[in-house]
Amino acid sequence: MSGLRVYSTSVTGSREIKSQQSEVTRILDGKRIQYQLVDISQDNALRDEMRTLAGNPKATPPQIVNGDQYCGDYELFVEAVEQNTLQEFLKLA
């Protein structure tokens, strides 16, 4: 799979996950960065794919990937935004 992907879930009881997912997509949309939203709640294979790419069997959304390269999770994303290194974080630069 190529391009920027944000692994998310439409089914969660966690307000924190919902909030983090919303913030990631809001920032990407605001910066006009194209991405594909991958809903892991639709297929366990997608959840497993996300966790394999993240290198963490317990990883939870949101997780960000560019092609086959893992970019990071919400905390790393926010850090990149704050440090103005988002393009590098997303492996777009």
Automatic annotation (TrEMBL):
Keywords: Acetylation, Cell membrane, Cell projection, Cytoplasm, Glycoprotein, Membrane, Nucleus
Cellular localization per UniProt: Cell projection, Ruffle membrane; Cytoplasm, Cytosol; Nucleus
InterPro entries: Glut_rich_SH3-bd, SH3BGR, Thioredoxin-like_sf
Cellular component aspect of the GO annotation: cytosol; nucleus; ruffle membrane
Main localization (coarse): membrane
Cross-referenced SUPFAM superfamilies: Thioredoxin-like
Superkingdom as given in the UniProt entry: Eukaryota
Statement: the UniProt record of this protein carries the keyword Acetylation: yes
Task of the protein: Could act as a modulator of glutaredoxin biological activity. May play a role in cytoskeleton organization.
Family note: Belongs to the SH3BGR family.
Name of the protein in its database record: SH3 domain-binding glutamic acid-rich-like protein
Species assigned in the record: Neotoma lepida
